[in-house]
Design goal:
Layout: E1 18-21, H1 26-44, H2 50-70, E2 74-78, E3 81-84, E4 87-90, E5 94-100, H3 102-108, E6 118-120, E7 128-133, E8 142-146, H4 150-163
Parallel strand pairs: 6-8
Antiparallel strand pairs: 1-2, 2-3, 3-4, 5-7, 7-8
Helix pairs in contact: 1-2
């Protein structure tokens, strides 16, 4: 290293980021569209005129829109916040993050569940995380959020919290 060259910059680890969409699996799309097609056929039942095509023109697009809406939720850790759809939590208020499998999620959301908890649960997603809060001004004790990658999401939230 020459005396005129600047010293190397200290390496600061970038906070871990995580992003996923809780979309529906293909078999739920298939089941939903098949059900809508069957219902449209039942309404049609060989009727002439508008009743021949209207059930299909209405029910199939409404079903597609409904299935898309069910799978629209995004879970992300970015900018020092945990984002779940349009709700966001600054990671400075996170005390701990616990990855949950299906049995753990069932236990947390079961009979003894806290009614003040913030829950975003999708039954077709097996895993979840429990984000324990440390904010005296907030009555919410914890968040339970469905995720396909509970360990990675927990690590990203804790890394973002520790980077602050």
């Amino acid at each position: 290293m020459s005396p005129s060259s600047p010293p190397p910059a200290p390496s600061v680890p970038a906070p871990a980021e995580h992003s996923e969409r809780l979309s529906l699996p293909w078999w739920l799309w298939l089941a939903g569209l098949a059900s809508a097609g069957l219902l449209a056929t039942e309404i049609w039942m060989g009727a002439p005129g508008v009743r021949a095509w209207l059930p299909f023109a209405v029910l199939l697009p409404v079903t597609v829109a409904g299935l898309w809406w069910l799978g629209r939720i995004r879970v992300a850790v970015r900018g020092g916040e945990l984002w779940v759809d349009d709700a966001h939590l600054p990671v400075r208020h996170v005390a701990d993050v616990i990855p949950l499998d299906a049995a753990g999620r069932r236990e947390v959301l079961g009979v003894g569940a806290d009614p003040l908890a913030f829950v975003v649960q999708r039954p077709w997603v097996g895993g979840a995380v429990q984000v324990v809060l440390d904010d005296p001004a907030d009555p919410t004790p914890f968040w339970v959020v469905s995720t396909r990658h509970p360990v990675e999401l927990a690590e990203a939230v804790l890394a973002a919290r520790d980077a602050r």
